[in-house]
Amino acid sequence: MTPPRTSVPFAAALALALTSGAAALGHELLWTRRLLDVTGSSAASGTRVFGAFFLGLSLGALVIARHSVFTRRPWLWLALAELAIAALSAPLLFLPEFTDWIWPWLGRAPLTGAAGGAIKLLVSIVFVCPPAVMMGTTLPLLAAAAVDAQPNMARHGIWLYGANTAGGVLGLILVLLVLMPVLGVRGAMTMILLNAIVAGVAFGFARSRPRAAAARPLPRGDVAEGTRPPRWVIALAAFSGFGILAAEVIALRLLMLLATTSLHAPFGVLVAVILALAAAAFATPLVRTSLSLQAVTAFALVAAGLCFALAPFLFVQVAAHPDWLSAAGAGAFVARLALLTLAVIGPGVLFAGTVFPNLFRLARGRNGHASALAWLLAANGLGGLIGAEVAYRGLLPWLGPHVALGAVGLLYVVAGALMAALAKSMRHVFLAAPVLAGVVALVFVPLRNLPIVNPHMNFAIIAQESGREGTLVVADHPQMGRLMLVDNQYVLGSTSARHDQERQAHLALLLHPLPRRVAFIGVATGMTPGAALMHPEVQAIEAIELSEVVTRMARQHFGDVNHHVLDHEKVTVAVEDGRSYLAAAQDAFDVVAGDLFLPWGAGAGSLYSLEHFRAVKRALREGGLFCQWLPAYQLTSDQLTLIINTFLQVFPEAELFRGGFHPDRPTLALIGLKGPGLDWNVVRQRADALRARDDVKDPSVRSQEALALLHLGPAAPLVQPATPVNTLANMLFERDASKVRLSGGGQGLYLYNRNWTTFLEGRYRHLGSGAAELTRSEAVRRWARLGIMLTNWEIARRTGHASAPDLQRQIAQAFPRSVAADHGADWSHWPGLGRWQLER
Questions:
Q1: What is the set of domains in the chain, with CATH numbers?
Q2: Could you report how far apart the first and last alpha carbons of the chain are, in Å?
Q3: 86 membership: H or E segment, kind and range
Q4: Of 497, 536, 532, 537, which Cα lies nearest the Cα of 513?
Q5: Is the full-model pTM beyond 0.70?
Q6: What tens digit of pLDDT does each residue of 625-668 get?
Q7: What does the angle CA 145 – CA 151 – CA 155 come to, to the nearest 5 degrees?
Q8: Three-state SS for 507?
Q9: Cα–Cα distance measured from residue 619 to residue 520, given in angstroms and rounded to the nearest whole number
Q10: Burial class of 772 by CB neighbour count within 10 A (0 to 12, 13 to 18, 19+)
Q11: Alpha helix (H) ranges present in 174-264?
């Protein structure tokens, strides 16, 4: 059956609903990004924005539901609401500039306590809630303008709701794949033009149509008592929002076990859910059945519950073919992930998505369908807010993603059985009973046995926990040892890499003359901040970690290898966003060390931004040192150059070191100082004192000569004059890192093996030229060039290249005797082929 021909005003209303929906979801995405730039990239910050958005939508709908005066001139009020959205969104263009005084004023300790959380919530509410309230009024006003004048109000109202929902997909695609890649976050805020378009059209209709005296009487049989829908209808509308948002949140965590962590991944899931909801809305009025609406709704609830309970089994089958999502490009990745999401939870969302439209058909009030729709939207939005919170705070941590999705399915089946009983349809109650029993059985047995980690990866699970930040697993592996794995794809740290992770602390501390107060951005397994306890001059350590789950796992399962750092009296653990925490610190630290961050991870680019580097410099004491570690093996040459150029805007005398000599997973350290440049006499004194204490056995940090082998010279020559700068507003780094990763091109562009050799050859030529204006001795430059030769020799030895013997002879002749003769060192800690291999 095809939709009937509608009048031009209703066709225009459909277009306006689509446009308004696109603007709403586009704004929500951009507002979230802007607020995360201010309140931090933690999952809790994202939840505050989400909560403020849904709270605003509910309040806006409630205003229309309770005050019929707005529905008497709906086109005029719609135009004013859209203009208000545009006006109230404008301040978010410059939100970081408006609010950059807050964290320095507040300070570090209050930031991590109740005061910090309250201020973040207040900022989210102040900037998000007012425009969201205006958004919440738009669909009821459109319904008042275009639906209450139609011959079949229920059908037209549902189609209007479906168009508004479908518009969200267009908004997400427009912002994520078009505006942000081209214009950045600030440029993408031109989404306000869509609100202006809707406002202009609405003003036109307001002028051309007479003021409505009141909504026309409803057809006989459609009138119910009261000015709002029955309470059970409102309650079920709230449950509908609760269930769909809970299922979406859990499905996101489930699918992130397979999808590449990136800026784009969450939106592939969101696009699929919105598409399914829109399809359900458009299809609902076309379904003809002899059953009552209550019975149809009961069936939909039970069917949705069964589909959600079975979804984890579908996911496990799909996860056996992970290559389907690889090497696709950003747009293709979002499309494929959306299709994958539809295959896994699409059936459940389709059935669940028919509940709200059916409730709209059941909800009839004397003020017309606009009032009924407003009441339902208010309840639905509030239910969605609660559902997301329950999923994040309760279901995921307690049950894990598989069982949590089954639990949501169980709630749907129970709701369906209650609905059938309310409809006095005992036949459907009896049909729901075995489904309920089956879902209960699934939740308590088979779903619990589904794997979280790929069973072919040879991990022995020690502990696991799911939550806002993802699914974190502690496991044993034959080669990597004990490790911490995030979302089945990214290793935060492992005991096999213990010495490399400890070296990240040793190098930063040894380059400073007297590091008393030290901050580490990123805890992971705790082995890097734990290494700072081996330096007695360090009096206080502040370990900053975004995830409370990570700190808990590090404390419980890695204490024996991280010196129990998280329980040490010198250590303060701050569960907070690193950018916000450093912004709250003024002249506080002698050394700040940034961990290795996953470049394409959502929000990681902000830790390589100009604003963050400036905040770190303000947090340093005079003479302080900032060491930012970079995973070269996950960076392209252009991305590395972008980071370095951004760093140089704040630390113009920056130096470059590396974490070792292995070519397959090379790391780099950007060193910036607040004050005079690097003093190699200080480095010698610090390394000599370390060697005299003899508690650090790593030969690569026990002497000035060994540290010079890791040196790659000044960072400035790597940058060309036209190199751009990465900021929170343009998101250049995060956009490019995500794009390269999703395209699959990174394997040929990332700096490891041959690409790393090419990079080092450029450094070698520079270190050997007169252009290298280093305020240090020729010996330091010579050791740095020798360190590059060590990597070249290792590659030649691994590949069986003919140059290996000659390189080995050259290195043996030039290798610093003070390093080779360090009998107190443990050469198993050496970050490359061992000394015994060099001597052969």
A1: 1-211 (1.20.1250), 231-450 (1.20.1250), 455-488 (no CATH), 491-839 (3.40.50.150)
A2: 83
A3: helix 74-89
A4: 537
A5: yes
A6: 999 999 999 999 999 999 999 999 999 999 999 999 999 999 99
A7: 80
A8: helix
A9: 12
A10: middle
A11: 180-188, 192-208, 231-255
